[in-house]
TrEMBL record:
It comes from the Bacteria. GO terms for molecular function: 3-oxoacyl-[acyl-carrier-protein] synthase activity; betaine reductase activity; sarcosine reductase activity. InterPro entries: ACP_syn_III_N, DUF5940, Gly/sarc/bet/_Rdtase_C_bsu, Thiolase-like. Residues 347-511 form the DUF5940 domain. The gene is grdC1. Residues 255-332 form the Beta-ketoacyl-[acyl-carrier-protein] synthase III N-terminal domain. Keywords: Oxidoreductase. It is an enzyme of class 1 (oxidoreductase). This is Glycine/sarcosine/betaine reductase complex component C subunit beta. CDD domains: init_cond_enzymes. Its EC number is 1.21.4.3, 1.21.4.4. GO terms for biological process: fatty acid biosynthetic process. It comes from Clostridium aceticum.
Length: 512
């Protein structure tokens, strides 16, 4: 079988300012430990408007309205800059306002856990009717709505999680079980947000790439949330629940978890399934995490900045059999951080970058673009984490110098030539490698690049099961146009074939 291809992608953002205060872990833990803190008092004055979020340059890159390289046209910081002609909709997806996203929580709610106030429901229903992807069958799931008294009772007496819009109570998410902590209202809220944002990304994937939902065979969901009950915590299945909402009636699926590296793991799994002929069309999809909202908010407020982590992120990618057009996924050129790799920067970069390149007889400079941890430096620098993509590019370049593939003076400009400024929201798994897939596919189709490497990294120690770091990578490559007729052979495979032939020859001689 020939290599699988990336046939389409989508990227969505949801502006959720009220969820920062009520659902982001930085804020909710602050409420518990220091409810009268100066930070909590100042935070409401640092929230951005929906218009500001739409106009924000990195967000326009995320939905495909701008190319990553165009961020260089804006002086940092970017939060006080606006893109002329910015739009809610881009070629990859959209930036959805909070009211519509709250309505989407109800639309994807399969167990009648979400209660929304009647007037709010009436108003948002009219807004959703204007949305190009919201069919009547989806809008009908909003139903009539509830009285505010019912909602208050569910919160006060039955531990429901409140939903706010413009600082007003407009709904709640009920618990799914009286005793099961894995089905409490807070976790159900988190999971519904992940599902709803994943559904929106899936719908945009189908729409933007003219894909029939019925042609999807398998779905891999790769966010950082986990759904299940007390008997199988994290058992899933987000993937099938998202496929159901998108009417992918012929699809099955499963969830893949690996912290920030999960999307790249999922990309490799999808490519392998398609290449092996198990499935023709596999979608990897991920919704976002309410826990990450306002994660670095204290540092942003301290520096008199707006809270930039005010958006939920989501994406979807379609991996299909080779069509001779779209970029291929070189499953023979995989990087992997193994148990024995070690955690030093050089060991990590060697395992993820140079080891797979060596198998293909390639140099560091043979990769046109590296998509690493594409976190937005506007968010991370004020928090003391620096410019994460830039740091990655410097490490790759330094290894290139050590290998004799780069001159020392080229280190400073390596990121400009082989990298990009970061633009992805700090939603954990969202920035790690995959934000560039959509832009990369366009660059391949326009013959602007020949190779790109998608690199995912993860912090497994956060689960307190191991101190191990994690990471995987895969090379995307220009399609030679022969489709299913082509089977690429790497240098390593050639060596193995020669070795096998020599062994057979030696056996033949010994037999004589």
């Amino acid at each position: 079988m020939s290599y699988a291809v990336v046939k389409g992608s989508s990227y969505v953002l949801m502006h959720t300012p009220d969820m920062i205060m009520h659902n982001g872990t930085t804020q909710t833990t602050e409420k518990q430990s220091n409810p009268n803190s100066e930070y909590l008092q100042k935070l409401p004055n640092h929230l951005r408007s929906y218009e500001a979020v739409v106009n924000y340059p990195p967000n326009q890159v995320y939905i495909g309205k701008l190319k990553p390289e165009e961020l260089k046209n804006y002086d940092m910081p970017w939060y006080d800059k606006a893109v002329e002609g910015a739009d809610r909709y881009g070629k990859f997806g959209e930036i959805m306002p909070q009211a519509e996203f709250i309505a989407l929580l109800k639309i994807v709610d399969a167990f009648d856990l979400v209660m929304l106030e009647k007037n709010f429901t009436t108003k948002v229903r009219e807004e959703l009717k204007k949305h190009p992807l919201m069919k009547e069958s989806l809008i009908a799931k909003l139903k009539e709505g509830n009285d505010i008294e019912e909602i208050n009772k569910a919160i006060k007496e039955f531990h429901a999680e409140a939903i706010y819009h413009e600082d007003q109570l407009i709904g709640c998410v009920k618990r799914a079980h009286e005793l099961d902590t894995n089905l409490n209202a807070h976790i159900m809220y988190e999971n519904l947000v992940a599902k709803a944002s994943g559904v929106l990304a899936f719908l945009h994937l189908l729409d933007k790439n003219n894909i029939e939902a019925s042609t999807i065979d398998y779905v891999i969901e790769c966010s950082e949330e986990a759904c299940g009950d007390m008997n199988q915590r994290g058992g899933g299945n987000f993937a099938k629940s998202i496929a159901e909402m998108a009417e992918a009636v012929n699809a099955t699926g499963s969830d893949t978890r690996g912290f920030c590296a999960a999307p790249t793991h999922a990309l490799i799994e999808a490519a392998a399934l398609v290449k092996a002929g198990v499935f023709e069309n596999v979608v990897i999809v991920a919704g976002g995490a309410t826990a990450k909202l306002g994660m670095n908010g204290k540092d942003h407020v301290k520096k008199d900045m707006p809270i930039l982590e005010d958006i939920i992120g989501g994406f979807a990618v379609l991996v299909s059999k080779n069509d001779g057009i779209n970029p291929i996924l070189r499953t023979d050129l995989l990087g992997r951080h193994t148990v024995g790799t070690g955690s030093s920067p050089q060991a990590v970069i060697t395992s993820l970058i140079t080891a797979p390149l060596d198998r293909g007889g390639l140099k560091i400079t043979d990769i046109d673009k590296y998509s690493v941890e594409m976190q937005n430096p506007d968010v991370t620098k004020p928090a003391g984490a620096g410019d994460v993509p830039e740091a990655n590019y410097k490490m790759i370049a330094a290894l290139g110098v050590k290998r004799g593939e780069l001159d020392r003076k080229e280190v400073a400009t390596f990121g400009d030539k082989h990298g990009m400024p970061g633009w992805a929201p700090t939603q954990g798994h969202i920035p790690s490698g995959v934000p560039y897939i959509g832009h990369a596919r366009e660059a391949f189709l326009n013959k602007e690049i020949n190779r790109a490497m998608i690199v995912g990294k993860g912090s497994l120690f956060l689960g307190r099961m191991t101190n191990q770091f994690d990471g995987v990578s895969i090379v995307m490559e220009q399609n030679n146009g022969q489709g299913e007729a082509t089977v690429g052979v790497s240098e390593g495979e050639v060596k193995n074939m020669i070795a096998e032939a020599m062994r057979n020859f030696a056996t033949h001689l010994l037999g004589e």
